[in-house]
Design a protein that fits this description.
heterodimer, A: about 250 residues, mainly alpha, MetI-like fold, 10 helices, about 85% helix, about 0% strand, globular, B: about 260 residues, alpha/beta, Rossmann fold, 2 domains, six-stranded mixed β-sheet, four-stranded antiparallel β-sheet, 8 helices, 10 strands, about 35% helix, disordered N terminus
Chain lengths: ~250, ~260
């Protein structure tokens, strides 16, 4: 089973990269390098160490922003899910955050927080937090009431009910929100580097576009997508280990 | 009065329950003799589950009181254990953790609670499934887990909310027979909610017939003569059949 799904992954990768290589070779667009050229550029950047310097810059707002969003987002989400009052008070803020066109808010953020790390962390948070908060609160609200009653009837305290019933029960949806939040965070981090100050991977992308070094540009884009995919897979593995029986969804 | 406390494990005294303007229970009084199985039987909407949850301490009564062993109660306590209609298992936890969960919440340490849970898992016939997850079990097996969980905390009173209504008919019959043996062998008081007349008459020492609008106990029936008979011949017993018929006659006007 595992080898079969692994084989299918390899196959789908080969198909996509093959199509990319083919499109590059027949010259769909002068700005589209072939897959192999892009990989060569990526290897060059890796050898020269440029990519590591770039990620040192990019990952800082990304990691800080995602961590803040995850912890505060899940915290607020649980709170909102447990209390109708806080739902009423806080949910609209995050719904607006989610709906607002972020690029249009960036000038405001720059005015308020300058062009440094703070603004970039903010961009990541604005992207990542709403979906984490909203998913968490919905999941908490939808905890089956009979399981909560069960814990109460077997003398569980309010704390027991929250920690042993509500959080594990909500965890699949919380993790789904985290995955969406993390991928939104990646978008935010790159957006911040393209819109606020060009640093890190965003700098490679915009600089190599200006100098028409398209293989490097695609290499940078490819690397950030690869990183995001790896990160999301790790998150999924963590979830599998933490909550084994939950994969099968709800029983009744 | 003290005699009454010894005879009755649970006493419900003049209990009222309103949900807003809706009157779910009005001035309901009922006694549950120790060591016996009492059924709360009635059509849906007659407040039988509400009454059970008030006894469990999961719902507050609007007025009136519930005594367990002579002591008034208003919240869940170690003297009562609950078996849920929809099993209420934790899907992320193995069978053994589900069974031991009541003990876990009481702060019993892990090795001790797992050895107790293992015993009750064996009693309900689920040995070998300790480390399975609920989604891997059939409906009947899931309710066995729910039953083992309630037994493992060793409460003198067992509250069962339509425990067999979500399992198939064959399993249900088996469960009813097992329940009779349980009542005989365990020195516990059972309060059993059901909407099945046959089931109530089959398993109960005492059937409390609840009628809706307003909710009240209309009749208490104590089937007696077939209680000591062999399990296999109860369903053919003439008193059993007469009692079923009599209850149906009182209930049929309430079924729209």
């Amino acid at each position: 089973m595992l080898s079969r799904s692994f084989f299918l992954k390899i196959l789908s990768g080969a198909l996509i990269f093959g199509a990319w290589e083919y499109a590059g070779r027949v010259g769909v667009n002068y700005a589209l390098p072939t897959f192999l050229e892009s990989m060569k550029a990526l290897i060059d950047m890796t050898i020269s160490g440029l990519i590591f310097q770039a990620y040192a810059d990019t990952l800082r707002p990304l990691v800080v922003g995602v961590l803040i969003s995850a912890f505060i987002g899940i915290g607020i989400g649980v709170w909102v899910g447990l209390s109708e009052k806080f739902d009423w008070l806080i949910s609209p803020i995050f719904i607006i955050m989610q709906a607002a066109p972020l690029a249009a808010l960036i000038p405001l953020l720059i005015m308020a927080y300058g062009i440094g790390l703070t603004s970039k962390v903010f961009v990541v948070c604005i992207m990542a937090m709403p979906v984490i908060v909203l998913n968490t609160s919905v999941a908490v609200k939808n905890t089956p009431s009979s399981v909560k009653e069960m814990a109460r009837s077997f003398l569980g305290s309010r704390k027991d009910v929250i920690l042993k019933i509500i959080i594990p029960s909500a965890s699949p949806v919380i993790f789904a929100g985290l995955r969406l939040g993390v991928s939104a965070g990646f978008i935010g981090a790159i957006l911040a580097e393209l819109k606020i100050t060009p640093t890190g991977v965003g700098d490679i992308i915009s600089y190599s576009r200006m100098t028409a070094d398209y293989p490097s540009m695609y290499a940078a884009i490819f690397s950030i997508i690869l990183l995001a995919v790896i990160f999301l897979n790790i998150l999924e593995k963590i979830e599998d280990v933490l909550f084994k029986g939950n994969n099968q969804g709800y029983i009744s | 009065m003290s005699n009454d406390q010894i005879e009755n494990a649970v006493t419900v005294k003049n209990v009222y329950k309103n949900y807003g303007d809706v009157e779910a229970l009005r001035d309901l009084s009922l006694e549950f003799p120790k060591g016996q199985l009492t059924s709360l039987l009635g059509p849906s909407g007659c407040g039988k589950t509400t009454l059970l949850k008030i006894i469990a301490g999961l719902l507050p009564a609007t007025q009136g009181e519930v005594l367990v062993n002579g002591q008034p109660v208003n919240k869940p306590g170690p003297d009562r254990a609950f078996v849920f209609q929809d099993f209420a298992l934790m899907p992320w936890a193995s069978v053994i953790r589900n069974v031991a969960f009541g003990l876990e919440l009481r702060g019993v340490n892990k090795s001790e609670r797992e050895s107790i849970a293992t015993k009750y898992i064996k009693d309900v016939g689920l040995t070998g499934f300790e480390h399975s997850f609920p989604h891997e079990l059939s409906g009947g097996m899931r309710q066995r887990v729910g039953l083992a969980r309630a037994l493992s905390v060793d409460s003198p009173v067992l509250l069962m909310d339509e425990p067999f209504s979500a399992v198939d008919e064959q399993t249900r019959r088996k469960f009813q027979e097992d329940l009779l043996n349980l009542v005989k062998n365990e020195n516990k008081t059972f309060i059993f909610v059901t909407h099945s007349i046959e089931e109530a008459v089959y398993v109960s020492d005492q059937v409390a017939l609840l009628l809706p609008r307003p909710s009240r106990v209309s009749e208490i029936i104590k089937p007696s003569s077939f209680k000591n008979k062999d399990i296999n011949s109860i369903r053919k017993d003439s008193e059993y059949l007469d009692t079923v018929e009599r209850i149906w006659k009182s209930l049929r006007s309430y079924v729209e």
